[in-house]
């Protein structure tokens, strides 16, 4: 798969270069009246811009690597989910299994890989039930559910609920199926596990869609706004560099300068959207202030930022997750609150940081179930709660119909590392 992507990328670059060469042949540069000294000065200036463009392009590449790392974070979520997951091929052999799945059946993951899933089922009757359900999934591409007696090595049999779902390749063919295994021997916890499984499925779908949207947008922006401009600028630069004729008409050079300026702006905008450099350069407080101002500029929403001026050292993971949470909450206000004004206040409370976001929007009934539990529209809130809980942070939301909403984020400060550094 990686080789195919690389081949496709190389072909795209080759096609782009050929188009740029063709465009250059159609547009002959007139440099008759330009002195040799001016040519050398212009070439020197253009090469400086080219180096800057190459540096910006490297920043973009790093941003794309960070996007890949976010996908690896989902892999961790898969591994440590409280539900056992097995990925099977058409023959019923195990190609992937998470740590919970390995623990449920009492067999190490490396031993399970390549083995038929049927070895984990207790009796022939249940093996037949599983076979028929699995066969139906591959045939109809529809999910199936069944309850079976399974085996845990060293502990004996247990009752399990199995949800078998189709997994599709790039052409829409069902090539694998995913089996979620829930131990239902203890009925008191089964509902919680099913709810978590449903949330995880929605998270998986939204993560895949979000990643695809970002990747597609990056590809479009790089192709349309960056790569093409760089290729054309390079061709024209090479043409000027190889010429010894001079002229006074600087129209072509002005065109190249404008092209380079436009490209630099596109790259900076794109890298800001992907990586938020201000967060890593100036810290959480200044990044939130920038974000608040940016919301006002982009959406016309009146905003106010307040900070008590006290030191608020944060661990790297806490800083990143807290910033993402603030951004998600502000975006939700823009999309759903119909608010006219938002106030963001950051304070230090003993060994914790508190971020309070208050709007004067339409509000909502907090007694009703959270939207993120009822559909994909609230994926952002679910993601905030889960990620903040992982680093010991909390989110509380207070709201009422017609009275706006107040969201309060609290997270531990990195006091220990500050003391150690001293």
Sheet-strand content, in percent, reads: 15-25%
Write the CATH architecture name of the largest domain: 2-Layer Sandwich
Find the structural class using helix and strand composition. alpha+beta
CATH class of the largest domain: Alpha Beta
Q: What's the number of structural domains?
A: 3
CATH fold-level assignment of the largest domain: Heat Shock Protein 90
The whole-angstrom Rg is 28 Å
Number of helices: 12
**Beginning-to-end CA distance, first to last residue:** 49 Å
Helical residue percent band: 55-70%
Low-confidence stretches: 1-6, 371-377
Number of strands: 10
Overall mean pLDDT: 78
Question: What is the name of the CATH superfamily of the largest domain?
Answer: Histidine kinase-like ATPase, C-terminal domain
Main beta sheet strand tally, sense and closure:
5 strands, antiparallel
* H/E series: HHEEHHHEEEHHHHEHEEHEEH
Shape: extended
Largest sheet strand order:
2-1-5-4-3
Description:
- There is one protein chain.
- This protein has 422 residues and is an alpha+beta fold.
- It folds into three domains: 2-77 and 210-274, no CATH class; 83-187, PAS domain (Beta-Lactamase), CATH 3.30.450; 277-421, Histidine kinase-like ATPase, C-terminal domain (Heat Shock Protein 90).
- It has twelve helices and ten strands.
- A five-stranded antiparallel sheet has the order 2-1-5-4-3, with helices on both faces.
- The longest helix is centred in the middle third of the chain and has 55 residues, at 187-241.
- The model is unreliable at 1-6 and 371-377 (pLDDT under 50).
